[in-house]
Amino acid sequence: DIQMTQSPSSLSVSVGDRVTITCQASQDIQKFLNWYQKKPGKAPKLLIYDASNVATGVSSRFSGSGSGTDFTFVISSLQPEDIATYYCQHYFSLPVFGPGTKVDIK
Amino acid sequence: EVQLVESGGGLVKPGGSLRLSCAGSDFTFSTFSMNWVRQAPGKGLEWVSFINTRGSYIYYADSVKGRFTISRDNAKNSLYLQMNSLGAGDTAVYYCARESRKYNTSPGVLDLWGQGTLVTVSS
Q1: Are the CB atoms for B94 and B12 separated by under 8 Å?
Q2: Which of B45, B113, B114 sits opposite A87 (nearest CB)?
Q3: String of b and e for B1-10 (b: at least 16 CB within 10 Å)?
Q4: Given an 8 Å threshold on Cβ–Cβ distance, is B61 in contact with A94?
Q5: Which residue of A lies nearest to B118 if distances are taken between CA atoms?
Q6: pLDDT tens column, B48-105
Q7: What residue in A sits closest to B58 (Cα-Cα)?
Q8: Quick check: A92 and A56 in contact, CB under 8 A?
Q9: Measured CA distances, B122 to A86, B16, B66 (Å)
């Protein structure tokens, strides 16, 4: 099975800061990688699909890059509503989510 | 409004069974493959199962294989998850989620999610 790791596991940032989260796959997954936002008590929300495509209706401050085994997710300027946990998910084979990165306000 | 609404969660004893439902509205349900994803308390997201539009491609996570059965009724715009032999490790909020691409035959990009239904397995 393909395993996913994310770093950091959590981070505290200020409004307006640039946030960078990395996701690593245990083997080459090409670009079969998505990013989701999850807030407590809310449904997960698709942000980025196929490593770098911004989902419909999602702010352009969210972006993704990478291929193969190493991927990066960026929030260019953190807004208060971005406080959430972010998950990467591969679908090169049956889907596996990363362990998540919790983002909160410093 | 395009949405998914889950139901059927609740408290069940270890070894018991439960059937979850998910109703889709304001989109052509029959043209989209569907998934179940769960989140245990304080834990991350875990993909559970996938079914394509006709029910001819079905996949399960190893953690539920042999115990859970996914199905759908396109005439009722509904997705189901029959859960048997439940254990404490199955306690979670269960989400149904739609595939973004029509007629997918394997799980991939999940673009529409329900609000979830809580399943608690406890004696």
Answers
A1: no
A2: B45
A3: eeebebebbe
A4: yes
A5: A41
A6: 999 999 999 999 999 999 999 999 999 999 999 999 999 999 999 999 999 999 999 9
A7: A94
A8: no
A9: 29, 10, 21
